[in-house]
Every structure is written in structure tokens, then in C-alpha cells.
Amino acid sequence: MFLWKKTKKNQIRLDPNNIPCHIAIIMDGNGRWAKKRGLPRTAGHGAGADTLVKIARHAYDLGVKCLTVYAFSTENWKRPQEEVSNLMNLCMKRLPQIVDLMEHRKVAVRFLGDRSRLPAPLVKMMEDEEARTAEYSKTGCFLNIALNYGGRDELIFAVREIAKKVQQNEISLEAVNEELISAHLYTAHCPDPDLVLRPSGEIRISNFLLWQSAYSEFYYDNILWPDFSEKDLERAILTYQGRNRRFGGV
Ligand code: FPP
Prior knowledge:
The protein contains seven helices and eight strands; from the N terminus they run βββααβαβαβααββα. The chain has helices at 30-36, 41-62, 81-105, 120-133, 151-167, 178-183, 230-241; strands spanning 5-6, 12-13, 22-26, 66-73, 108-112, 142-149, 195-198, 217-220. The strands form two sheets. Strands 5-6-4-3-7-8 form a six-stranded parallel beta sheet, sandwiched between helices. A two-stranded antiparallel ribbon has the order 1-2. It is globular and about 60 Å long. The two termini are 17 Å apart. Bound molecules: farnesyl diphosphate. Farnesyl diphosphate binds at residues 27-32, 45, 48-49, 52, 71-72, 76, 87, 90-91, 94-95, 98, 145.
């Protein structure tokens, strides 16, 4: 069965009926991109933010409903203080523009992760930006920005919440199942990712969406995130469309 084909002009033609509903991206390679150009790492993150805008725009145009991007992990605090501050400032600077774009496309913006360690002005901005696009939740289109996010941290948070409810007799122990755990994750509003992309040549999951990616398709690419283009996204989706998802069946 042919799900896709290339057109005469070598343009990628995707099967519109098999666009992944949810794509998650590890935006990796910013530092190397900057180093290659003799620039500071922060210039790489800035270029990475430009790529995020470009790729988000194209993803929703193609019919993707949820996009989740890994902007700062619970492990990224180990980076030099200057880089961490720069990343926080970059978020403050670029979020309004990104949310403007989402508002225009009727996409709701959500932040995934533990906000307690983030700078207060950034948290305030995140809350305001979520509120600004909250009405679009009904469209089912989301941009999830993972900020101080860790898959293990998320599971600890969910287990604690569930344990509290069991302790207070709000739910029985027998009620704890996959659906209940999923409903206690930061991503409760979205289906699990169909496709997880990691550019830059690294082939690991790095504590990203550990529970949710149990049956995701993975796509790795050598391109550094700031160089990742709309065509690269299409290539990834094309590869996805050629996969045979069996979810453990035959
Ligand atoms: C990993 O590349 C990238 C990050 C830790 C930061 C990603 C953040 C952005 C792209 C900006 C997002 C902006 C907003 C507003 C959400 P790396 O630095 O580890 O690259 P390297 O492996 O080449 O060193």
C-alpha cells in the first residue's frame, strides 16, 4: 500500500490522512550550531527559537494538532549559570511572539514541568500566556512547551498526587490504571505523541515524555536544530507514514 509519494519536482507529498496528531521534539544541537560559527552558545539558542517558530507554523499547517517541545530539562540546571540565565531571558523575550502566532492559529499554549524553580516573572508570563490562549483548548490544538521538565520528575509528581487521593479515600487502589496515571501527567490534555523527533545526531530520550512515548515512533536526524527546515519536518513525517505501527500486536 502506498501512503505517500514524491512529486515530479521532488516535493514531498504527504498522505493527509496519516499526519501524526502529536509530534514531540527534542530541540538539540543549538550549542554545536553556534560553535561551528564561532558564536556564543546563546546565539545557538536564539537561532533555535527562530526554528521553533518556523517549524510550529509548518506543523500546524500540515494538520498536526499537538506539538510538544523540550525547551529546558530538569537536568539543564547543571549548565553554567550564565547559560541558564540566558535561556530564561530568551524565553521571556520570545514567548510573547510565539504565543501571538499560536493565538492567530487558535492553538492553546501549555507549559509542562515544575514551575517552582523557575524565575517568578517567567512563571507569571507563562500563566498569562496560557490564559491568553486557554479558549483554544476546545480546538484540540496545543503547543506544549516543556520548561524545567523531566519525565521522571513528572512521574514522581503524578504518583504523589495519586497516592494522596488513595490516602484520602478519594479513589481506591484498584482504580489506579494506565488511564489514571496519564490523567495525572502534565500532558493529560493531549494524546500520547505519535512521533518523537530528535535532530543533531544524538540517539537517546533524555528524560523526555518517558511514559507517553511508550509506543511513539522515533525519528533521529543529524541536522542541528537551528538548521532544521520545513522540508526536514516533512521528511520525518514521510518516514513516519512509511512505518507500520502495531502497538505490540501483529
Ligand atoms: C539543547 O541544545 C537545547 C536546549 C537546552 C534549549 C532549547 C531551547 C530553545 C530552542 C529556545 C526555546 C525558546 C522558547 C521561547 C521556548 P544544546 O544546547 O544541548 O546543544 P548542543 O548539544 O549542541 O550543545
